[in-house]
Design goal:
By secondary structure, the chain is mainly beta. The protein folds into two domains: about 60 residues, Ribbon (Laminin); about 110 residues, Lipocalin (Beta Barrel). It has one helix and 16 strands.
Length: about 210
């Protein structure tokens, strides 16, 4: 009799423990707005996984050129932009421009130039016919520019021209977008021994 009574008591205690396991969500941390119910995460729309850690919005999105998807949006590396990082950021710079250089010593110079993208560097553009400069063969010469966002930087460069002339240029500036597109540069220019400082304004007149 005592053994039978002990068996029933043990069975009753086991049933009580099984029916009341305690807080099954105590050690579960659901992410991204999910809620724990009965030891499992119930996820907010757009999320999945044991802890709602997976953003399903990125399942159908492919970010290009090194971009990464977060919460359904592509985050692009420097030099790329667009919904899927498909476009080069320097595209807005390219085109035909009318130029005006206002220099302290040389005065004002007016000319036309063009800006094109580098084929090898996504952050680089070329300014063709900068300062109206011609190379040793009399053709338009180009200045390399690093374009990041709306900022342009010209590292110190030396261009050789006809009749042994030499142009040394460096500077920095900003792309301005409003009713049109223009580039404003503050440059240090040296033609042979003559050093000068110029404020250059390039106004976009058309596409290439």
């Amino acid at each position: 009799m005592p053994r039978i009574l002990f068996f029933y008591c043990f069975l009753l205690v086991s049933l009580l423990i099984a029916c009341n396991p305690g807080d099954s969500c105590e050690d579960i941390r659901c992410q991204n707005g999910g809620n724990c119910v009965g030891g499992k995460c119930e996820c907010a729309p757009g999320f999945a996984g044991p802890l709602c850690e997976t953003n399903e919005k990125c399942k159908t999105i492919t970010c290009l050129n090194g971009g990464t998807c977060e919460k359904g949006n592509c985050f692009c590396p420097d030099g790329w932009e667009g919904k899927t990082c498909q476009a080069r950021s320097t595209q807005v710079w390219t085109g035909k421009y009318s130029a005006k250089d206002s220099c302290k010593k040389a005065g004002r110079t007016f000319y036309d130039l063009s800006i094109e993208q580098s084929e090898t560097d996504v952050l680089a553009i070329w300014i063709n016919n900068f300062h109206g400069w011609r190379d040793l063969k009399g053709a338009m010469d180009s200045v390399a520019v690093t374009a990041k966002g709306i900022t342009a930087t010209i590292e110190n460069q030396i261009l050789l021209g006809a009749n042994g002339k030499k142009l040394i240029v460096s500077g920095e500036g900003t792309l301005v977008q409003g009713e049109g597109v223009s580039l404003e540069l503050k440059t240090a220019i040296q033609v042979d021994a003559l050093k000068d400082s110029c404020w250059c304004t390039f106004t976009k007149t058309g596409e290439l």
